[in-house]
Predict the structure.
Amino acid sequence: MTGWRNGRLEGVRMNEGGDGPLTSVVGQSVLFAKLQDLLAWGRTNSLWPLNFGLSCCFVEMATSLTSVYDVARFGAEVVRGSPRQADVLVVSGTVFMKVAPVIKQLYEQMMEPRWVISMGSCANSGGMFDAYSVVQGVDKFLPVDVYMPGCPPPPHAFMECLLLLQNKVASERRPLSWWFGPQEVQQPIMPSMRDAKREERTRQREYHAIDVLPRTDLLSPHFAGQPVDPSNPKP
Amino acid sequence: MTPRSSAMKDTSTGERAGVVAELEGRFGSEGFLTAAQYTKDEIPTIWIEKNRLRETLRYLQSEIPHPFPMLFDLSATDERLRRHHEGLPIGVFTVFYHLFSFDRNQSIRIKVPLKGEVLSLPSIVDLWPNADWYEREIYDMFGIGFDGHPFLRRLLMPPWWEGHPLRKDHPARGTEIGRFQFPPEKLVMTQEALQFKPEEWGLSRTHHDPDFDYMFINLGPAHTGTHGVLRLVTQLAGEEIINIVPDIGFHHRAQEKIAERQTWHTFIPYTDRVDYLQGVLNEMPYCLSVERLAGIDVPTRAQTIRVMMSEFYRLASHLVWYGTFAQDIGALSPVFYMFNDRERIHAITEAICGGRMHPNWFRIGGVAQDLPIGWDKLIHQFVDWFPSRLDQYERLVMDNPIFKERTVGIGAFSLEDAIAWGATGPMLRACGLPWDLRKVRPYSGYDQFDFEVPVASNGDCYDRAVVHVLEMRQSLRIIRQCLDSMPAGSYKSLDPLATPPLKERTMHDIETLIHHFVGVSWGPVLPPGEAEVPTESSKGQTSYYLTSDGAQVSYRTRIRTPSFAHIQMVPFMARGELLSDLLAVLGSVDYVLSDVDR
């Protein structure tokens, strides 16, 4: 049974019911799946962002490429300079009226399928910059797939949104050819993260006191910019 | 929360008298000065008429003994809603010229009122080359013309923009203008406005040889080498750069307009985003100016915390510069190491300030919180370990023969040019002048610290890198001194203009309760006056020139940023170099687009 689990394609393996070494070897390297699922799986794990930075958010996005965060784990480290080769436009920063035609053109130069992540409060809604020169949200002229809150969102927020986008891309179904099958793109309806996380957030009762430092070891080989707290492994 | 008195003080005493007396000696005391203004920052500020402007500036630039060779800042104020005139000859607009003298270690501000119908002044582009962009910015933001300016057109706003944003009658908010829409005809119009036409900039398409055409290459605004949305149109003969026309304003966040609507305290988070790499280093000049305006003394502990965090952000900013500069030149691995170290600095800033890039940590009169328990261990771990990393980076980058080949002798300029173009910070020190405001005009207790001002002599890309690298070691030195001798005491001033009455005192009498309520919800009312405290930020001198009209908000906030002056120099630095050297020049300049466009 092909299915999606945690954003990964889990297919039927040959070793179910097999009885010899040959079938077990083949079972490790052969995967049966529907063609559409396989294509979606490929797209999901090779989301290449366009190298286009606007403001502060881009610095945090670039930080996620470096080794402490290492976005290569999700197949998204291949930052492309040309919109023709890129899959994701990360609008990382304030969208200015003067730069809006440039963003629009870059988006239109990207090949289908293409996705847009709106990174940070400015791109989401103008944020704190309710100013004459700022477009109040990139969704005024581009379709947005994932909105990322934060000013700027830290690198791990960028990676979380990338995973959300991967979930979406994995469940999208696109036409296999221009001459057969349905021609429209089937978009999943993605749940609101606010609703999905509400229960977990309301459960939280203990917070760090502001005058006590979290125990952070700067020189630890596992340093990842995160406080080390054995009692609460998920910060 | 009542405004304090701001009576005009006697202007004929002390240091101020010196330059004003010299000017009067040259131009006559009758009818030359229309007023001498007292400002809280003690910078001599004089008002003159428009027709005396050029001769006064020329005298100050070159003829006066110990001249003022640098045009530090030039901007304007819309005075139409000003309530407190203080007997000054205020007109409809005021244009102010801020000059600086290294010999005297002194600034002077010259103000010219504009009255009547014709809004124009004589241009001073022939006196200072950096007046070019400042005058264009004034034209863009206020609609004031400059006679004799070669290319007077909009600088920050797109050419299709209507109105002049910093005029008081221009809408401030995006939501006031209405929902942004992009119908096809607007898309075509805005795209066409981005077309570059060399003739409009006085550039020829053809060489004197009719078979040879210049090539125009458009770099940006979406280009990996420009570190943001900067556009440079280069005119090339083969690979040689003949000229460059920079196009800025793609990152204009209207900070100066926003300052006119945010209360004194609530503008602090906006200052973080003026140069988004250097966090509290932006808050420093703003808070110092507000404190000077309000007459607030900052406790020593708060000052030392400020210095310590400033130096951490200087390190973080320099690390980003270090890595990306090496990357611009083709060394791809250093940036990974340097970003990892920056992550460790951000672990510290997060532990102390609660934020990474935008900490919003300084407050008027102090800082937001006291240092948390255990801060010293964390910082100790960092300062003991980081010097060895710097050693490695010097071997990896600065000693690298390819790096030297690409940067030594590239984009060089002389000290005179640096001063004429308004270069500050590492750009100036790479030319041999050890001018660091932390040393020559100490603020926030920098005079208590033992550190050196690194300089280099050639003014090329490599020397700018050397200055940056040496500065990081000095920052570490300052942090270590903060660590060793952090004074005890309060982390914030209890001045009523800085901190509302403490909550526990409010439940005893109604007056304190009201002042607490008003102070928390509206913020303090600062006395009318003007103040500006330039500081040494990571990229050069940053200053916030604040004008208070006796309200909860600033009447005019002028933000002088180093990147603006430095990016204006790029065509001058890159002319005659090869196209590939342009990226070395850009990388060595160390700019941030939000710092250029504000």
